[in-house]
Specification:
The chain is α/β, with parallel strands linked by helices and about 260 residues long. The protein has seven helices and 13 strands. It has a nine-stranded mixed β-sheet with strand order 3-2-1-4-9-6-10-8-7, with helices on both faces.
């Protein structure tokens, strides 16, 4: 199974301070990872830092083109998309990942998500441990950690998309009627991948900062300040609103974004 999956980390040279932090936590919590870990970034210059990446791809372009280039370079039927601030917070066991990969293969899934966020729409074909998402609903496509069918991603991602376009626009535009092969979007209900989103909008989220302190990793708050309680409360409130009616909220967000663009 090791030659069927690659991990793709999306980043940029501006965020290179995250690479060492990401690598230290990855090496601690997944030291025996059998899959290639590919960094795709707009620029890279040699440093004396020790990173976990097995391959580095430099391409200064849109998120869509960068991810599609990384998929081509990976040459594996499945990929897992990460951001540079997705930080491991507990030990990863290879058998857990292989179990989800086998599920993705068995059910010909477009995506086998490894964390249920947002809540799924129900059980997949009466499997109590597997849920599913309906296309055309908010965040049916997400950058949350999961296992993607490489060919599905390659034909679905638009070259001009950002990661946020993928989550907010593609989730609503691409419905079941548009996709001929009807590959399901699934989620594991009996497993949750152990990671924290460490940074948002250039600032440390409080759980990310605590994770670093717990592991003896120093962070430079002059480079990235830590969010205040008020800023964190705003994030939690936004999450609660999305849980209430995510599709309606994302439609409004997309409408406002289009008007702002004009």
């Amino acid at each position: 199974m090791n030659n069927k999956l690659s991990i793709i980390i999306y980043s940029c040279w501006k965020n290179r301070d995250m690479w060492e932090i990401f690598s230290k936590l990855f090496q601690k919590y997944w030291s025996d990872c059998p899959y290639p870990v590919i960094l795709v970034t707009d620029a890279y210059h040699s440093t004396d830092k020790q990173y976990v990446f097995t391959k580095i791809i430099q391409i200064d372009d849109t998120w869509g083109k960068m991810i599609k280039t990384a998929i081509y370079e990976a040459q594996t039927p499945y990929v897992s998309l990460w951001m540079d601030d997705y930080l491991l917070c507990d030990y990863v066991h290879n058998e857990d990942i292989q179990k989800q990969l086998r599920r993705a293969i068995k059910y010909n899934a477009a995506n086998m998500r490894m964390i249920e966020s947002p809540a799924c729409h129900g059980h997949w074909e009466r499997h109590k441990n597997i849920g599913y998402y309906k296309r055309g609903r908010a965040y049916s496509f997400a950058t949350q950690i999961g296992i993607w069918d490489s060919s599905f991603l390659n034909k679905t991602i638009d070259d001009d998309w950002s990661a946020w376009d993928f989550e907010r626009i593609a989730s609503l535009q691409i419905n079941d009627d548009r996709i001929e092969d009807q590959q399901p979007i699934l989620v594991a209900l009996d497993y949750e991948f152990p990671y924290e989103e460490g940074v948002r909008k250039g600032k440390w989220m409080q759980q990310g900062a605590k994770l670093c302190r717990r592991n003896g990793i120093k962070i430079d708050i002059k480079v990235r300040p830590i969010m205040t309680n008020l800023e964190m409360a705003k994030i939690y409130f936004q999450g609660a609103v999305l849980d209430w009616n995510g599709t309606f909220v994302v439609k409004i967000q997309n409408l406002l974004s289009r008007r702002k663009g004009k």
